[in-house]
Amino acid sequence: YSPDALSRLPHFADRVRWFNENRPELLQNLHQPEKPGVNGNRMLSLLTEDKLRRVLARMLDPAEFLGDHGIRSLSRYHLDHPYIFHTGGEDYRVGYLPAESNTGLFGGNSNWRGPIWAPINILFVRALLQAYSYYGDDFRVECPTGSGQLMTLYQVAEELSNRMAGIFLRDPQGRRPVYGGTQKFQEDPHWRDHLLFFEYFHGDNGAGLGASHQTGWTATIPALMHLMAFLTPQAITTPSRVLDEIGRRRIQAPGAHP
């Protein structure tokens, strides 16, 4: 949050100050809220700089959470190393499943073990932009992990946005990942440009899965494409109400009704 935002919340600032002075033991494992960042911005966060780097090292690892089309809902590590819980003389197993569930658990609708979900990825992008507003360009992480390529948190947010956009865009062979191996939608001129917003997406190849047309949360992907087209790093780090404006902004397609 910016100094301007803090000046508009005097009672909140007083409570934070009291908490910092009277309960310092509770701040030992948190980011220090009194420590100023870029342009005097402050940050309330459970993650210290060291913890943030460790979280991102896992999240941006292609062998774990980072897929070609977004962040997976479960680490790919569990494909070969499923989590096994022993109780009552039985084994309960959680393995990486990039598509549909392979069990009847929850009526066969246990599909949070690997697929890519738009809402979760949107939250990651938002968190990265918030963190960038505090750390700026001096804080860089390897993305993807192991690549040797360093990025700012803004650039990481862009990378995730581009990967999600790639679900719907044609690849060099003219095929859209969202339609997987469905030839009718990939090749038929009457269908190939009529995109469906699926409920979630294959964790490895981006193919659309679950309900369609699921326009609710999946519609955040084109909205994010629109947002990243006009957003700039300078707008994020400048003390202003830009993030509040982004939250209130109604992004509509051309010709959409208000």
Explain the overall architecture:
The radius of gyration is 21 Å and the shape is globular. Helix 4 (118-135) runs antiparallel to helix 5 (153-165) and helix 5 packs across helix 8. The strands form 4 sheets. A two-stranded antiparallel sheet has the order 1-2. The protein has a two-stranded antiparallel sheet with strand order 3-4. Strands 5-6 form a two-stranded antiparallel sheet. It has 258 residues and is an alpha+beta fold. It has 10 helices and 8 strands.
Secondary-structure blueprint of this entry?
Layout: H1 3-7, H2 10-22, H3 49-59, E1 66-67, E2 70-71, E3 83-87, E4 90-94, H4 118-135, E5 140-142, E6 150-152, H5 153-165, H6 183-187, E7 200-201, E8 208-209, H7 215-218, H8 220-230, H9 233-237, H10 242-248
Antiparallel strand pairs: 1-2, 3-4, 5-6, 7-8
Helix pairs in contact: 4-5, 5-8
Strands side by side in the biggest sheet: 1-2
Which regions have little confidence, pLDDT < 50, spanning 5+ residues?
A: 250-258
Structural class by SSE content: alpha+beta
- Cα separation of the termini: 30 Å
Mean pLDDT: 89
Specify the oligomeric state: single chain
Global shape:
globular
Number of helices, counting only DSSP H or I runs of 4 residues or more? 10
Features:
258 residues, two-stranded antiparallel sheet, two-stranded antiparallel ribbon, disordered C terminus, alpha+beta, single chain, 36% helix, 10 helices
